[in-house]
Write a structure and sequence with these properties.
Blueprint: E1 10-15, E2 22-32, E3 35-52, E4 57-70, E5 73-78, E6 82-85, E7 90-94, E8 100-107
Antiparallel strand pairs: 1-2, 2-3, 3-7, 3-8, 4-5, 4-6, 4-7, 4-8
């Protein structure tokens, strides 16, 4: 095996291209067979609209705090915490009074 150093897919911060996502920018760090990793940065009042996930997703809050919902449950999430969004279940992530940075890890297989 030889060492392979490659660029990340989207190293710059870009607004999320989905309707209903406001005040959130992201960068794609890894896109490989079977998984996807992105970092998201939320402004105060930033939101990812409620939608069903196409994949199982782990959300790790790296900085700040916000709120998440899965199905009919809502909970706060803060730096050092994580939540799992099951495939096909409606979920949402947003901030109110704080900014937030999250790491999103999805299984894509």
């Amino acid at each position: 095996m030889s060492l392979e150093v490659r660029p990340v897919p989207r190293p710059e911060w870009s607004p999320l291209p989905y309707e209903g996502c406001v005040g959130v920018v992201g960068k794609v760090l890894v896109r490989e067979d079977g998984f996807f990793v992105a970092m998201l940065r939320f402004d105060r009042g930033g939101t990812i609209h409620e939608h069903p996930g196409e994949n199982d997703t782990i959300v790790v809050c790296v900085e700040g705090e916000g709120l998440t919902s899965v199905a009919d449950e809502t909970a706060p999430i803060a730096a050092g915490q994580q939540v799992r969004w099951p495939k096909g279940v409606r979920h949402r992530l947003w901030t109110e009074k704080s900014t937030m940075v999250t790491l999103m890890v999805e299984r894509t297989d």
